[in-house]
Design a protein that fits this description.
single chain; alpha/beta; Rossmann fold; eight-stranded mixed beta sheet; 8 strands; about 45% helix
């Protein structure tokens, strides 16, 4: 079993990369997709319309906690998690963190997600986590385990700076990861491509490759349609498979 955490600055395309990774590995592995971003965009990207979030389950608990009788809090959540929080899709399973209603604290759903992953990770070959943008989830240790960190960047200075900070933070927190990868996204010409390759080398990251800006991906994203079908596109699909094939996805001790 291997855990792949996909992260990066907001707007770089990390959710699209996460969705494509789910599609890629689900073709021959038992995959769990985890949307750990409160904005919950991964279901749309992988074409899942009906799903239950941990945030929604938390709200049900808040409303019914005085009517639980002899059932413990742990038993109640375990039943809900296995019965409702694991969304069984055609080729993979999906867990969506979501967020509490109103102005509630995110601590509870973050802790709930952490507990769910502790229980469920061992049941899958490959786990793809679409992390919240930036560094917060690593700082809070919502994500406790990741074998591979995949940082997505575009060519902007801010996203590259975020990539460096994420890499430094996961090293500082001693995640026990095997590799930190970098993917350049929306890269349009050779000068940009070489710059990102050199950046990865200088920062001690494993450079996976660059994906070009795609009008098709932009259109699908704008329409709220799944992006996973583009992996079957001849030209772009070949490039995507070439990049993802370098990651692994099973334990390679």
């Amino acid at each position: 079993m291997a855990v792949i955490a996909v992260t990066g600055k907001g707007g770089t395309g990390k959710t699209i990369i996460s969705a494509l990774l789910v599609k890629y590995f689900a073709s021959n592995r038992k995959v769990l997709a985890v949307d750990a971003d409160p904005d919950s965009n991964l279901p749309e990207a992988v074409g899942v319309n009906n799903f239950r979030t941990l945030g929604e389950i938390r709200e049900v608990f808040q409303q019914s906690r005085n009517e639980m009788g002899t059932i413990s809090k742990e038993q109640w959540f375990e039943g809900k998690i296995y019965g409702e929080a694991v969304n069984e899709c055609d080729d993979f399973d999906l867990i969506v963190m979501g967020k509490p209603e109103g102005e509630g604290c995110y601590c509870f759903v973050n802790n709930l997600l952490r507990g769910v992953m502790r229980k469920l990770l061992k049941n899958y070959d490959t786990v793809i986590i679409d992390c919240e943008a930036g560094l917060e989830q690593f700082s809070r240790k919502t994500i406790e385990k990741a074998d591979y960190i995949v940082i997505v960047t575009d060519t902007s200075r801010k996203s590259l700076s975020t990539a460096t900070r994420i890499k430094n933070l996961v090293e500082e927190l001693n995640f026990g990861f095997k590799k930190v990868f970098l993917i350049g996204n929306k890269v349009n010409y050779n000068g940009e491509a070489e710059y990102i390759r050199k950046f990865a080398e200088d920062e001690g990251m494993v450079f996976l490759g660059n994906l070009p800006y795609s009008d098709l991906i932009s259109e699908l994203d704008f329409k709220g349609e799944p992006v996973t079908g583009i992996i079957d596109d001849y030209k772009l699909g070949v490039k995507i498979r070439e990049i993802f094939g370098k990651i692994g996805g099973e334990n390679d001790n």
